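Researcher: Structure for this, please.
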Amino acid sequence: MEQNWDNNGYQLFQGKGSNDAATVPFVFNSSNYNVVQIFAQGRVADFEQNVMHFQYPGDNDFYRLIIYKVLQKTGANNWDFAAVCEKF
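Model: Predicted structure, C-alpha cell format:
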C-alpha cells in the first residue's frame, strides 16, 4: 500500500499495519473467516490519494484500489471520498 502522508511524501508497506513486516500473515480459519481483520492500516489526509495493490492467493487476477479524500468547507467541514477498484 502506498500512503502519501509520510514526511518524504509517500510510504510503502505490506502487512496488517505500517510497522509490520511483509511476512506478517493474515490468518483466516473456520472460527474467524467472517470477522473483519485490519488490512494495511493507514490514515487518509485531506486531498490525499492512496493506492493499494493486492492479489488473492491462487488467483491470477491483480487488483488496484484507489481512494481519494476531499475536504469540503461549506460552513462545517464535510468530507467526500472517491474509491475505485480495478481488476487486471
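Researcher: Any notable elements?
Model: The mean pLDDT is 75. The chain has no helices and five strands.
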